[in-house]
Amino acid sequence: MNLKINNYLMLACKFVLFVGLFFVLFNSSVNYLIFPFAFGMLFALAWANQKVWLVAPAYIIAGVIFKPTMEFAICMLVCMFCLLVPYFVHVLCKKNMKKWEFALFAIVGQTANVVFAILGGLSPILSVVSVLLGVLFMFACINVFEAIIIRGFTNKLTSLEIVSLFSIIAALCGGLVMLNIETFSFLKLFVSFILLIFAFCSTPLLTLLVASVAGIGALIATNNPIFVAPFVIWALSVLLFKNRYRIFMIISLICVELIMGYYFKLYTSFGIIEILPVLLSSLGFFCLPKAWCNEIAVIFNLSKDRMAMKNVVNRNREILHRRLGNLSEIFNDMNIIYRNMLKKGMTLDEVKTLLEQEITDKICSFCPERNHCHRTFSENTKQVFDELITISFERGRATLLDIPSYLTSRCKQTNSILGSINTLTAQYKKYMTMVNDVDTSKVIIAEQLLGISKIMGGLSKEIETNISFDTVRENKILDELTYYNVICIDVVVFQKDIWTMVASLVVRNEDSEKLRLAEVVSKVCGCKMAVYEIFPSSRPGYSVVNLKTAPKFDCLFGVSQKTKNGSKVSGDTYSIVKLDGEKILFAISDGMGSGEKAENVSELSISLVENFYKAGFDNDLILSTVNKLLNLHKEEIFSALDICILDEKNGMVDFIKMASPNSYILNEDECQVVQAGALPIGIVDETKPLVKKNVINSKDFVILFSDGISDSFQTSEELQECIKSIKTKNPQEFADEILERALACNNGYAVDDMTVIVIKILDF
Asked: 482: which residues sit within 8 A by CB, 6+ positions away?
């Protein structure tokens, strides 16, 4: 029940407010000749979703109070008909009305007014001017209502919206100057109140402008400039105490009004009634809740809060830069510690000496022929032991056939010697394998620590410089988007680095995917900008749209695959991943053999490579680490890797190849070959990939494939001619045709798993 009463009270207050507003605007004129403002406000309120059944009666009542004549009543009814009928037709049809349609209905609604004005002796030109001024005033009101009523008090007004607000203030002042009760001035009541609010909530420039606009509004209505100077002096007086308590602004305003009235005698008469409007407005301003002032301040003076926000951002970046630098040094020190912990096994000569000594102590020390063998024939005995140990290491076991006849003829411990050599070498090999695995694990950890150190060092350098926010461009973007009816409540523009400019916009959900966003931001920023991220804002109904400098190139790609005949799954795996810095990773991993085992190997390899690249590790470090990880596996697993990294900013392509077939770059003039190289990943402890850089241009094709494709052709030249003969410009069709021709070389039979990736380079 209380809620209903509150709603009724709110509606009653709004109705009274609308009646007063229309009555003031009915009185507002240009030199007492034309009265164009009331109907413009009527149509603007209807556009701003104010209840028509509340606005329309308020307009009629205010008009009757202003001019209770039959002619004026007819004019109001015609205007109301041209508003209500189209309005309800569009509501019933659930069709949005365009602004130009609304303006057309407003113009038609003034036909009766124009006719009666001309019949009353007013110039037809002035009648037309009156209608046009009213329509312009309607658009000004719509701009302000869209900013405040629809968007709310959370967004900075654009330049156009501020100009529109000033035109409304001027029109209201032109009406209020005519509405005095005896010597009590409603104009002074209104202007002193808004000057205090502007001085407290906006910039000094806007305060001076609104004072001038208020005086000019009264001047246009009366041809009397008497109020221009007092209003500007008021503005200057309250601005003196802008950053102090509100009470000082009020005292300053009252004192200045008393000085102008009593000492300088700027008014024809001055007494308690004349000072009362300033006193009442000062009391109202003093009682205004601080929270309301803060909300109003947002639409005028957001720049100060945002300047503080920008300083906080740069301060946090500085702190983060130092911390990341310290963490980078810590991880680098940990890398050094782990590398110093490596045990590093003995050399083969050291092992032979150690094993010879152990065999001698274990077997030969109790032999009666010991001195004869190890003194008289010491060189021959040492050579035999060296050879037997070497054979045992290489073959896994030494036999009697490996012992020279001259030793077997005089030594009765040959079987014991052989047994000891084979046992000790086997034990040592197991021990060395374990040590190598432990050392390899330590190296992997050390390499990851080094990689993390480099990443953190890079991040530290990236955020070392302060972000330079571009307030001028931000305001221009807000103005431009408002012109195109895109509701943007906030925008931030800054230079990320010498190549990249970033803009972040908060717009309505329905505006977030409009092409106009990128067009406007590109125009204002002076470079081509592209949307790279859209996500929901913390404010319901709004989204954050992030744009940055568009790269030079873009790409399309196609992938075609065929599993080896007889295999259930393919041993080929491919990956296409978007990396930071406008880079794209294309990779093919060809696991050893085919089938499920090969699939697991290739998936493991490609997954490791992909995740390391996404984390930001270097090429050499990634491949070295993946190679060591695969080597730690108990079974022999290895994979051929073909990696292509496209840098869309500068058109550079990095090819990283490990036992993969040749790749090709096809353009209008030639078909370049990117040579294969290096051993498969995971086959030996240390391996170096073949890394090659190439420059590409728009309309070039980059072709990668597994050996199932390349081995289907007799020679590399035959494959190259096949690629050059394909005429399609569609990368998917290109990939499909390469696969079909490779299959045709084997009568449609897939002798191995086949994968082909075709990348087409385009201008962005």
From this structure: 143, 158, 160, 161, 488
Distance CA 388, CA 112 (A): 121
Local structure of 692: helix, strand or coil? strand
Task: Sort 583 into a burial class: Cβ within 10 Å, 0-12 / 13-18 / 19+.
Answer: middle
Provide φ and ψ at 108, rounded to 5°.
Answer: -60, -35
C-alpha–C-alpha distance, residues 436 and 422, integer Å: 21
**Is residue 527 classed exposed, middle or buried when 0-12, 13-18 and 19+ CB atoms within 10 A define those classes?**
middle
In whole angstroms, give the CA distance from residue 384 to residue 371. Answer: 16
Q: Given a cut of 50, is residue 417 above it in pLDDT?
A: yes
Question: Strand (E) positions, 454-580?
Answer: 468-469, 488-495, 501-508, 529-536, 542-549, 553-562, 572-579
Q: Using CB atoms within 10 Å of the CB of residue 713, give its burial: 0 to 12 exposed, 13 to 18 middle, 19+ buried.
A: middle
HEC string for 104-129:
HHHHHCCHHHHHHHHHCCCCHHHHHH
User: Does residue 500 sit in helix, strand or coil?
Assistant: coil
CA 96 to chain centre: 32
What are the backbone angles phi and psi of residue 653, rounded to the nearest 5°? -125, 125
d(C-alpha 694, C-alpha 675), whole Å = 12
Reduce the DSSP state of residue 40 to 3 states and report it: helix
Distance between CA atoms of residues 582 and 530, nearest Å: 12
The label of the residue with tokens 């001019």 reads 67
> pLDDT-based confidence at 410, cuts 50/70/90?
low
CA separation (Å) from 186 to 140, 392, 640? 23, 112, 86
Give the Cα separation of 238 and 278 in Å (integer).
13
Query: Contact at 8 Å (CB) between 342 and 442?
Result: yes
Q: What is the 3-state secondary structure (H, E, C) of 253-276?
A: HHHHHHHHHHHCCCCCCCCHHHHH
Give whole-number Cα distances, 687 to 37, 659, 682, in Å. Answer: 82, 11, 9
What distances in angstroms separate CA 488 from CA 99, 141, 413, one per listed residue? 19, 18, 95
| 180: nearest Cα among 302, 274, 247 | 274
Which amino acid, one-letter code, is at 346? Answer: M
CATH code for the domain defined by 468-549: 3.30.70
The residue assigned the tokens 């020679």 is 715
* Token couple for 586: 């294309």
Question: Per-residue confidence at 684, pLDDT binned at 50, 70, 90?
Answer: very low
Q: Are 663 and 702 in contact (CB under 8 A)?
A: yes
In degrees, rounded to 5, the angle at the alpha carbon of residue 109 between the alpha carbons of residues 107 and 113 is 95
CB 544 within 8 A of CB 526: no
- Tell me which residue has tokens 């349609």: 101
First and final C-alpha spacing in the chain: 62
- Best CA proximity match to 703, nearest among 647, 642, 628, 625: 642
How does residue 634 score in pLDDT terms, banded at 50, 70 and 90? very low
Does the structure show a pLDDT above 80 at 702?
yes
Q: Which residue has the tokens 């205007």?
A: 79
CB 639 within 8 A of CB 599: no
What pLDDT was estimated at residue 248?
Answer: 87
Taking CA atoms, 280 is separated from 254, 386, 584, in Å, by 11, 113, 67
235 token code pair = 């503005």
The per-residue DSSP string of 125-176 comes to HHHHHHHHHHHHHHHHHHHHHIIIIIT-TTSPPPHHHHHHHHHHHHHHHHHH
Find out whether 612 and 629 touch, Cβ atoms under 8 Å: no
Alpha-helical segments (H) within 341-413: 348-362, 370-371, 378-395, 405-410
Phi, psi dihedral angles at 662 (to 5 degrees): -60, 150
Reported as a single tens digit per residue, the pLDDT across 706-741 is: 888 888 888 888 888 888 888 888 999 999 999 898
Helix H or strand E segment including 524? helix 515-525
Helix (H) or strand (E) holding 657: strand 652-658
CATH number for the domain formed by residue range(s) 553-763: 3.60.40.10
